[in-house]
Specification:
The protein is an alpha+beta fold and 274 residues long. It has helices at residues 11-25, 35-46, 51-61, 65-72, 94-112, 154-166, 181-188, 207-216, and strands at residues 86-91, 118-119, 125-130, 142-144, 147-149. The protein has eight helices and five strands.
Length: 274
């Protein structure tokens, strides 16, 4: 069904957004490039990107509402409906999932009484599963308004959301102090976080992330050792011919291949279906 035109912002809100939008536009040589931060700006006003917000972006940037909608619906950080003060995201990508992310997500769904991308009745918490946040050495990871809470368990994640709902102070494992989702959206729009100490570093890469870097630099690692490709096999064991029941894998190096052994080139490629 056709929709009525979006309701405009109240005059005082429009005046404030116009001033902020002017500041955002000044950063870009082409106004169209300002669309992403402007969507964050209107999200900071209402907690989601409403039709009113998209109409404001379209008018400000001389775009069609269809062009703005296409961008707002493409990126998952833009919410299309009212959401909670705290966006609680549980990483359910492969490593976090097998380390307990799926169990955390299922526990929080039952504890909060909501499903994926749903908000508690008090409007405090929106729960969602999220994709990899490049923090695999801290798995499983939970994020609240894009701040990291590392090495979580179902029990610690339950305490976390209970503290958020009760209004108690919670501290991210690293990064800036936690703020509301609307405040986060304004920061993402490019406006400075003026809270005392908010931009001071409070963490970085974990030990597991740095091992590869140290090896690449040739630095010695404490208690470094080579792990045998087969459990219980001594490091100095001689290679053997596998029996038909054994399965060769990339862990059974070295293997003779056409690339490493010119005397045993690969045979002709088989026809499709053979």
């Amino acid at each position: 069904m056709p929709q009525l035109p979006a309701t405009p912002y109240p005059a005082e809100v429009r005046a404030r957004l116009d001033a902020d939008a002017k500041e955002v536009l000044a950063r870009y040589p082409g106004s169209r490039s300002a669309l992403l931060p402007l969507l964050h700006l209107v999200q900071s006003e209402e907690g989601y990107v409403s039709r009113t917000g998209m109409a404001f972006c379209a008018e400000t940037l001389d775009l069609t509402t269809a062009e703005v909608t296409a961008v707002a619906t493409f990126y998952s950080m833009y919410r299309r409906r009212p959401s909670g003060d705290y966006q609680v995201g549980v990483c359910t990508n492969t490593l976090c999932a097998v380390m307990g992310g799926d169990a955390i997500f299922d526990t929080l769904k039952e504890h909060l009484g909501v499903g994926n991308n749903e908000t508690t009745e008090d409007g405090k918490v929106t729960l969602e599963h999220i994709e990899c946040n490049a923090a695999c050495d801290f798995a499983p990871v939970v994020m609240v308004n894009w701040e990291f809470f590392d090495n979580q368990t179902p029990e610690s994640a339950t305490r976390l959301v209970d503290d958020l709902i009760a209004g108690r102070t919670v501290e991210p494992t690293r990064g800036a102090p936690l703020c509301s989702y609307k405040e986060t959206a304004r920061i993402l729009a490019g406006f400075p976080d003026e809270r005392p100490g908010a931009v001071e570093p409070t963490g970085g890469a974990g030990p597991a992330s740095l091992i590869g870097l140290k090896l690449a630099k040739g630095e010695a690692l404490p208690k470094a050792r080579v792990v045998s490709p087969r459990a219980g096999q001594p490091r100095d064991a001689q290679p053997h011919d596998p029996s038909p029941s054994e399965h060769l894998s990339s862990h059974d190096a070295p293997q003779q291949t056409s690339a490493s052994d010119p005397e045993h080139p690969a045979g002709p490629a088989a026809e499709e279906g053979e």
